[in-house]
Amino acid sequence: MARPYVITIASEKGGVGKTTLATNLAIYLKGLAEDLPVTLFSFDNHFTVDQMFALSKKPVSNHVGQLFTESDPAELVSAGQYGVQFIPSCRQLFERQNHLQGVNHLAETLSRSTLQGLVIIDTSPILDIYTRNALYAADRVIVPIKDAPSLENCRNLADFLTEQSLSKATLRLLPCLIDTRIHFDGPFKNSYQLLKAYAINRGYKCFEGYIAKSPKVESLATNPQGKILPILTHGRSTDVHLQFMHLARQVYLDYLQHGPTRMTIVADQLYNLETLLERERRQRTAKLHPGCLCCDNSLPEDGIWPGAYFLEDSDGRLSGFIEENCFLDMVLQDCYGEQKGRGAADSLRELFAESAERSYLLLQHRVISDDQSQIDFYRLDQHGEKISGRTLLIKQRGLFNRQRGSRLLQLFQKSAASEHPPERQLLLAHRTGNQPLAMIEQQAYLQWQTVFSRIRVDLAAESETEQADANT
Ligand SMILES: Nc1ncnc2c1ncn2[C@@H]1O[C@H](COP(=O)(O)OP(=O)(O)OP(=O)(O)O)[C@@H](O)[C@H]1O
Ligand SMILES: [Mg+2]
What DSSP character marks residue 422? Predict the structure, then answer.
């Protein structure tokens, strides 16, 4: 599938001509290659794109904000004037940005879409989450510069690309709003030559030529029709028309000569990541004990259990589920002294199950001496911080004698590689609800691993302190 080539117009300086450039470049490019789909949208909230391209005044519900939802960009696009298609602007874009994280969302969305041809993105003069997303997705970033400060501001864009391990060569500077009436003495005759020399000196690449400041072009934004008129149709007599033609040819040539587009690279990365995640998920599934770790009842084929706990040891040797009743019997009998068959403490079971939903349960087995071991039972919050705990002392001959010992101890026996128990073993359990397999999905398992790592670090620190205390 041919993926789109993305051109982002960005500058942290306001009023340098970004929107004028984005909108008119879209029209000139369409003029150069009639069959090439050209799609334009703006993360600016001035609605210039809509005023220039909308075929009717009828409001539409699609807007650029939806590029950050699960919507397919191809479905957000409206047919527009001059053959340019556009995604309507959004008034609440800035209120929405608080919900956004990550600079790769737009790139991933565009790389999955069926949108083709050229995508031109106009941005606001702030390096906010939308601009960052537009930069991250870009094959070409065009930065209009009109003076020394706007040139200095390019550094933030370049730094962002470097931070993201993207090439600075994506940037092309373009002197804009150049007042050609002003001439200097010395080697640089006008502000265009001066800006270009500054830019090259700082290691930036520039397009050939510039866009001049023209009263005619400025007037195209103000007219009785209440529309913003294009240079191609209403400013043909200006030098800016020729300058845009020259610019569009350079951009089009870049497009024709490009290697794999940014969207193709992002799509490949996504594919590799998804393949990797799927492989990891399969590995996790393969490791799962086939039935309940306690009673061996097998997991129903539809994967639905009335209630279950996911449990894994710290080195991933033991991994699987325990039916809710088995787990409660085991923990309540071993740690809370509830006696089997007495049916007492239904309320304790309910309470336990309810709080287990919001917490993680950690079991730690420690060998104290040849005939004594200890099981610590901790309830942890969602982040792995201890909330409460209790300790169970186990005194018996032959610690890992399978005939004897508590049921919790039997669980540790299953997790140990040999008959000899390691000095310290950890098991983490979490109540999974009735779809236990959801626990091995990426997000849930990642959270699980984070909690497990956190508590391991805490326990190691505690143990060091104990050791230090014992030595003094
Ligand atoms: N070549 C030009 N000649 C004269 N005026 C121009 C030219 N290009 C843009 N302008 C005018 O300059 C002003 C700023 O342009 P524009 O809105 O394109 O800048 P911008 O960088 O998008 O601004 P913002 O940062 O506010 O989004 C507008 O009034 C526009 O009509
Ligand atoms: Mg603008």
Answer: P
Judged against a pLDDT cut of 70, whether residue 402 lies above it is answered with no
Residue 144 CA: nearest ligand 1 atom is: 21
Residues having C-beta closer than 5 Å to ion ligand 2: 18-19, 44
User: pLDDT tens digit string along 315-346?
Assistant: 788 999 999 889 988 888 877 766 655 455 67
Give me the amino acid identity at 121.
I
What are the angstrom distances between the C-alpha of 378 and each of 74, 386, 432, 449? 51, 7, 18, 17
Q: Is the C-beta atom of 214 inside 6 A of ligand 1?
A: yes
CA-CA-CA-CA torsion for 287, 292, 296, 300, nearest 10 degrees? -90
Model confidence at 418, pLDDT cuts 50, 70, 90, reads: low
* 13 CB near ligand 1 (under 6 Å): no
334 CB within 6 A, ligand 1: no
Ligand 1, atom nearest to 125 Cα: 25
Q: In terms of Cα–Cα distance, which of 353, 232, 460 is closest to 452? A: 460
Q: Which of 145, 218, 219 to mutate to test the pocket of ligand 1 (most atoms within 8 A of CB)?
A: 218
Using DSSP's 3-state secondary structure scheme, residue 391 falls into strand
Which residue's alpha carbon is nearest to atom 29 within ligand 1?
Answer: 218
The C-alpha atoms of residue 454 and residue 459 are separated, in whole angstroms, by: 9
DSSP string, 319-359: EEEEEHHHHHHHHHHHHH-PPTTS---HHHHHHHHHHHHTS
Q: Count other C-beta atoms under 10 Å from residue 119's C-beta.
A: 30
| pTM for this model (two decimals) | 0.71
- DSSP letter for each residue of 303-316: ---SSEEEEEETTS
Spell out the domains of the chain, with CATH numbers in brackets: 5-269 (3.40.50.300), 288-471 (no CATH)
The answer to which of 102-106, 116-120, 317-321, 405-409 has the lowest mean pLDDT is 405-409
Distance CA 75, CA 458 (A): 50
DSSP structural state of residue 388: E
